[in-house]
Write a structure and sequence with these properties.
Elements: E1 15-21, H1 27-36, E2 43-48, E3 56-60, E4 63-67, H2 69-72, E5 75-79
Antiparallel strand pairs: 1-2, 1-5, 2-3, 3-4
């Protein structure tokens, strides 16, 4: 299901608003993301895009996380205007 911009596609230094999670993501993963601050309506910033598919660095609130492509493609965003 196409949801538009996902977290993995976010450009370095770009900020977007978390829109939703992939419907197929397990509830315990969704809950864990929420515990880490990945909640609908929260701004997310790409801090660093690493080469060769390595995990990328994202900022949510005042915390920085490294996420794999497998996780990041399941988080959908709205571009910040």
């Amino acid at each position: 299901m196409e949801q538009g911009l996902n977290l993995w596609a976010l450009a370095e230094k770009q900020i977007a608003i978390l829109k939703s999670f992939c419907p197929s993501i397990a509830e315990h993963h969704r809950q864990r993301f929420a515990e880490l601050g990945f909640r609908e309506g929260e701004p997310v910033k790409c801090i660093q895009r690493t080469p060769l598919g390595a995990p990328r660095i994202f900022e949510v609130g005042s915390t920085v996380y490294s996420l794999s492509k497998e996780d990041a493609i399941r988080i959908f965003l709205l571009p910040q205007t």
